[in-house]
Amino acid sequence: MKELFREREFERVAFFRQVLEDEGIPTMIRNENLTMSGLSEIPIPEFFPALCVMNDDDYPRAVAIIRARLDEEKSDPGEDIGCPACGESNPGNFSNCWSCEAPLRPEVVG
Ligand SMILES: [Zn+2]
Questions:
Q1: CA 8 to centroid of ligand 1, rounded, Å
Q2: Is residue 54, in this structure, part of any structural domain at all?
Q3: How much distance in Å is there from the Cα of 98 to the middle of ligand 1?
Q4: How far is ligand 1, taken at its centre, from the CA of residue 100, in Å?
């Protein structure tokens, strides 16, 4: 078992757990019970819920998935991206051009 990340907000840990489970990666949340008992109100990182992969072999894949998801969140949807293929401008949260369907961020590869 390997810890991926810990975060004070349980909802966020649970969200990423779901993302990984959807990808077929078995996970568990450490400190879940502590969180539920309200102890997470104490701002001690050791008590934060931690998302872990059950199989160490899944770790690199899980990190890649989370990283990709965080990158998606970071990209400001308000900022347009020019299509590298046809030059149309697309909302920043699009991954493919609405016009010609070319990938807007070809550098993002698993
Ligand atoms: Zn295009």
A1: 40
A2: yes
A3: 7
A4: 4
